[in-house]
Amino acid sequence: MLPSGIIFKSYAAEEAFLVTRPQKLVFALFIVALFLFPMVGSTYLVGTVSVMMITMIAVLGLQITVGMAGQINLGQSAFVGVGAYVTAAMAVNYELPFWLAIPIGGLTAGLTSILFGLPAARIKGFYLALTTVAAQVMFPLAISRLPQSWFGGSNGMSMPSMELFGYEIWGQTGLYLVNLCFLIVFTTLAFNLQRSRVGRAFIAIRENDVVAPVMGINLVKYKILAFFIGAVFAGISGGLYAYYVTYVTAEQFTLWLSVIYLGMLLIGGMTSPLGAIFGVIIITFLQETTHEIGGYLSGRISFVDESVLFPATNILLGAVIIAVLIFEPHGMVRRWRIAKAAYRIWPNPHG
Amino acid sequence: MIELVQSLSSGVLLGLLYGIVALSFVVIYRASRVVNLAQGEVVMVGAFLAWMAASSFGLPLYLAIPAALAMSACFGVIIERFVFRPLTGQPIFAVVMASIGLIILLRGATMVIWGPATRPFPQVFPLGAIEIGPILLNTALLIGGVITIICAAGLNWFFMRTDAGLRLAAVAEDHTTALSMGISVKKSAIIAWVLGTTLATVSAIIMLSGSVLGVTAAEIGFRALPVALLGGMESVRGAVIAGVLVGMAEALASTYLDPLTNGALSQIFPFILIILVLLIRPQGLFGWKIIERI
Amino acid sequence: MLLELKNVEVVYSGVVQVLRSVNIDVPKGSVVAILGANGAGKSTTLKAISSLLEIEHGEVSDGEILYQGKDIANTDPADIVRQGIVQVLEGRKVLEHLTVEQNLRLGAHFRKDRDVVAEDVERVFNYFPALRALLKRTAGYLSGGEMQMLLVGRALLAKPKILLLDEPTMGLAPLIVEEIVSCLKQIHAQEDMSMIIVEQNANAALSVADYAYVLENGRIVMHGPKEELQKNQDIQEFYLGLSIGQDRKSFREIKHYKRRKRWLG
Ligand SMILES: Nc1ncnc2c1ncn2[C@@H]1O[C@H](COP(=O)(O)OP(=O)(O)O)[C@@H](O)[C@H]1O
Ligand SMILES: [Mg+2]
After folding, report:
1. Touching chains, C (3+ CB pairs < 8 A)
2. Are residues C138 and C265 in the same domain?
3. How does the average pLDDT of chain C come out, rounded?
């Protein structure tokens, strides 16, 4: 719903995300604030937001595969892993700068995903999820069995730091700014994809993959493309993650992480890239708060400690996912839209 | 030659273990159309329930096992009632996603209730191996295999020959049709979940008898899911046959291919096999052909 | 009166009102036809009677459905079938992956009187001899006519006091339609049973029914004994699609036609 008095004069205008001048202004201020944030935030907070942004890119990719195109993907973290390892190999073995290593990592992750998307030629619906589980199972095995000189085998790989024009990017602030730039680029891509021809084809496939081909959509091509684009996002996220944690091992990219990514997407709302962003924020917030509360409680109640707290977060998380599916299948994005509409027609009650 | 027979027969026994877990997928899917990705976690919870009955309550095994089965039946009723019943009529996608939520929830709950430490699982079946000529067979898995086959035969009879079983089949086909015939979809779903969770606990006991129990027990879920898909999600017979096939393939790969590939192929091989089969028969070996209408 | 719908209103998803104040009477032993165009609310009426609305997020929001004097609106569909109201859904919903035999058996799944069921199965074979040879076949691969026979047979095995048939002749070849219609007549003659037949094929329905209702946009716009409906030329043209003159109509005639239609409605 839009504020009153808005008249579109062209299709492009109608498709735009930011319509009114205040909207543009607020958005610009928001972006500036994001860039200035490290000046006010504590190191811990800046680090947390950094990780959040890295995760957002992976979940944005998942939104494209799962939310837009309706293909269940249980292997997103494997593609994140591919990105991380390839980025590491590029940076370590070939001493490429990060702005080359990370895109190469993303692309390789995308190409790897094509291998797993290929069965889409015949397999439909849920069964396709199986190949993504296969990806997840194969990933650590492949890493540890490939020659040690490639990916460090089971030892993992240590990362150099990022460098730009001969200057080293260091500290949480530096990494934060790089992550933010990547996030802005990929969020823009995700939003624009949704309203492009490809995005519309994805949505048609999601809604009905029996009818979509009748409308002239090449099912196989678009399904593979959905996997590819989603995995490129994952790979980029992996590359950034590698630089952030400075050390990659195969154990960082588990099926469990893929499951959590899906959970984030679900809670945020699958039908819009905004859902990916909301989901990551909500779940990070949830985890951090239980952490805080736990830290407070563990001093006072004897049996509360780390080993109870972390799983307790998961109980909450799982319950929230199920509750969202039952009570608000469109995720928090819908609540956001309702809130926006309510604000615009305030003080009238929503009709 | 002996090596081949040995590896094949161990493979068959392992495959039968996959088979019984796959059966639990199938039973739930048949009546509720739920592909429960959290089935591995259900097996894990079943294992912890059995452990609790035997170790915490200190019951003797002949009481502990029925107690564990009864508790898992209740567990099934709870999952059905509070997670999947509210989702009836939702697209399959939402249901799959709910099962993902269930994975997270059950892992968390298990860790909070029973703690993350591993513990010895009671020894239900005799340890060691039975010698048949030059071939050694793991006793627990052998007995487990027999149980699997009995369960499968029983379920097959139940689904094909009894009114209650046919009712579940009708529900699996179409909810509205089943309702129009006076079949209660809710009751069927409850029966399916009770069967599914009890079978999962049986498989947990076979898998863990005399070994170590921890959250990693849940991993059997994603090893057995492909087996269920290969057999066909609707087919009881298919689950067992596919289990045996995958078990044998895995054993052969680990005997003959692993030395060449540094031990990686035996774990990946089943997936490759299954994807290849699904490319030719998307509904699995014995599954229902999807009759698509626009 | 065996079944009475009194001012029944049906709403889907809490917002879409599909039936408005529908009144239908089904005396014991009679065959009632409900006629109307696509989307008029015929299937909804039948689903309201057999309580199948819930699964589609619909409900009877007002009015009563009295069966043997008791209100059965929005009750458990399983109970309704056991009380003798059995519906054959539209679209030939056989249980595709089960055999014909299993399909038939499921028709009687709740009955305890095993030996009577066996007799009933024989009776079904008398009505539909073709089914006997198909017993072991998978139901999903039957032809349309065979499926419809199977469905009616399956419904008969539930011992209905009132059989609800939703478009039993839809999409069937004229010869098969005749066969089904004559079977239905025979069943009505031999069984102690009422029927409601929903049809777009007015000819087929009226040849079995003795009373008919015409539904339009969720309202009953017309009802009467079969003979009366068949006599009235206007009704024939407007609702039953049985055009009498073949000549094309002029604009004036159409205006006149609309006025008459409004008057009738
Ligand atoms: N589940 C539903 N939700 C909303 N509207 C529905 C639903 N089912 C049917 N309708 C609407 O109710 C009207 C009557 O449908 P129906 O009873 O199937 O008509 P008929 O059987 O006469 O062709 C149609 O306009 C249809 O769009
Ligand atoms: Mg209809």
Report:
1. B
2. no
3. 87
